[in-house]
Amino acid sequence: MNFRTIIEPFRIKSVEAIAFTTREERAEALRAAGSNLFRLPAAAVLIDLLTDSGTGAMSAAQWGALMQGDESYAGSRSFYRFEAAVRDLTGFKHVIPTHQGRAAEHILFHTVLRPGQIVPSNNHFDTTRANIEAEGCEARDLVIPEGRVPALIHPFKGNVDLGALERTLAEAGDRVPLVMATITNNSGGGQPVSLENLRGIRVLCDRYHKPLFLDACRFAENAYFVKMREPGQGSRTPKAIAQETFSLADGCTMSAKKDGLANIGGFLALNDDRWAEEARNLLILTEGFPTYGGLAGYDLEAIARGLEEVVEEPYLRYRIRSIEYLGDKLTAAGVPTIRPAGGHAIYLDAKALLPHIATLEYPGVALANALYVEAGIRGVEIGTLMFGRQPDGTEVPAPMELVRLAIPRRVYTQSHIDYVAEGVIEVARKKDSIRGYRIATSPAVLRHFTATFEPLP
Ligand code: F0G
């Protein structure tokens, strides 16, 4: 018998209470937070979809593995287990642990980049872009045109525009030290990159003698999309697809807080001996000795186990379907979102829903804040607030104005998701009463984390 219901492939052994608040309490909490959801105490949030990063539930096997953690400063047994798990998946020669993804980015970019260089990718995520710009370089987004149109259906909206990449390499190749691809493409809607596209990037990288690095935070979700959507891939395991994906690259940065199924951790993995040596020297300066890289031995154990669990097919089938389930409900109710559904999140199209709010009055912030006050659900703006400010201080509209509802891994059940759909649909019904914001205070970099806002009349 083939049952149609895809169930959570786990049962719950330990629970954490969530806090109910009144609409008045939420409106007050938002005011006190300068209208920035990042500034809210998490205890004032009912369903927290701010991020899928570090917010997942670990398995009993991971918690058990914590007790196996070897806290030796150098040569810890846990490091070798971690290294073996990363190598088994990626095949990369050097495995360098870091405390999270952006530390791996910082170490890679500080080792490799010189001011004035260009790093092409499909889309760089916020910390990646900021780390590239901090080296005086340009983070160049070259996603396919379909990837910039929220309502357009395409199986691999995260693909790199190979023509645009070739032009960058032909015209400015001497300024490109490496090419990147983000799998899945977070700022573009959690959309996958196909194996065919990665092979095309590889051909260009070989022709111009450039290394290819993956921003691999969500490699397992990407592999499952490849399995479902790419011709000829349906009978392969997600792990085999992930292994082929990594085999096309020369290295990767990874936040284990996503598809590592851990609450903290990351790594830089690469084949180049000279870059690895320089990276390890910088690691010792900023993160820690190369066999722990700013992590506890028990963190390395949790990640090693998480990397095995994340490619299990029942997990990925549930994971991808549970996001799509939320997307289907919103689409059926006429709420505009990036389609198809992403691998870790649903992205509401704030520009389409709130055409009466100008881009520089931050429709994504307005929508995210309204959803919080209405239903206690916390999402995050991905739009002009996050990406609009240029290194020269000017502000240009981002290609899309989105509110991302990121779903933590193995945390919320179907009824939580039904509640989220109800909340979003209710806010969409009241859209005409939603107003924009202006920035009151703003820091120099990564302003979305700490800026404060004032609601417009
Ligand atoms: N790359 C991508 C594609 C990411 O999504 C993130 C983090 C990072 C790199 C940095 O990793 O947080 O471990 O330092 N994204 C989180 C998010 C924060 O909410 O999407 P980190």
What does this entry look like structurally?
The chain is of the alpha/beta class and 457 residues long. The protein folds into 2 domains: 174 residues, Aspartate Aminotransferase, domain 1; 250 residues, Type I PLP-dependent aspartate aminotransferase-like (Major domain) (Aspartate Aminotransferase, domain 2). 40% of the residues lie in helices and 12% in strands. The protein has 16 helices and 14 strands. The strands form 5 sheets. Strands 2-8-7-6-5 form a 5-stranded mixed β-sheet, with helices on both faces. The protein has a 3-stranded antiparallel β-sheet with strand order 9-12-11. Strands 1-10 form a two-stranded parallel sheet. Helix 7 links the parallel strand 5 and strand 6. Helix 8 packs across helix 9. The protein is globular, with a radius of gyration of 21 Å. The chain starts with 22 loop residues before the first helix and ends with a strand. The model has no long low-confidence stretch (mean pLDDT 96). Bound molecules: ligand F0G. The site of ligand F0G has 15 residues, from helix 4 and helix 5.
